[in-house]
Amino acid sequence: MDTASFADRDGYIWFNGKLTDWRDAKVHVLTHGLHYASSVFEGERVYDGEIFKLTEHSERLVKSAKLLGFDLGMSVEELNKACMDTIVANKIVDGYVRPLAWRGSEMMGVSAQQNKINVAVAAWVWPSYFDPKSKMQGIRLKVSDWKRPSPETIPTESKAAGLYMICTLSKHQAESEGYDDAVMLDYRGQIAEATGANIFFTKKGVLHTPTPDCFLDGITRRTVIDLARARGIEVVERAIMPEEMSDFDECFLTGTAAEVTPVGCIGDCTFKPGDICQQLIADYENCVRRLAAA
Fold it and tell me: Which CATH architecture fits 132-293?
């Protein structure tokens, strides 16, 4: 993985309609997106030169923007092309794509109806989100002190920048205590998700996952559910309470960055990555490579 600063790299970023030198893709310090979190984004994976489920990601970016009250001024097809142009310009074969949109600096204050909507796409080489060695042993999580908010308090169906502030706080706290990540409960005290990934548990061959009613129903989450059902594995979406964790056999996370990552423990609750984890890791890998080759 490239360890250079993300502000100082060679390459190109698609910025408001054209490919721009990476170092020239800048915004003003008074941009509304920086001060008031009026920004939405996507995270996408490139496999063998193709972006996995690109259209679904572009559709979600459009939806997220609308939930925040602005229009990207681009169609899904135009977003798809911008993403593909970016990975081609940067010669990305296997990597990560970050499309984002934000309100500019024309108005500074809570009210920002006249602000220009900016759109950019960056892409870079990015391997496994978690350390590959610890990943297969099962990563270590703790329960965060922060909770996912009620959908009555914030647009939880959007992939909006502001929703990730407590994710950063949770992950930083977890890492400072020697964990890899954190599990977040929701405003009702139910298990919700990790800081950037959905969560699954297994019990007696059945897959259990929280109902996504106050957090994102991830694209990878839906893919893994489809893969599990194709294997004849029963999938139950329901409210899951923290005290249930000790009864589960396996646990894993799913996400564009995390892919399918086994969990070894959540606090004092331990899990052993078993047959279902291993099967879904293999099926997911086959799925993304097969679609890239199609």
Answer: Alpha-Beta Barrel (3.20)
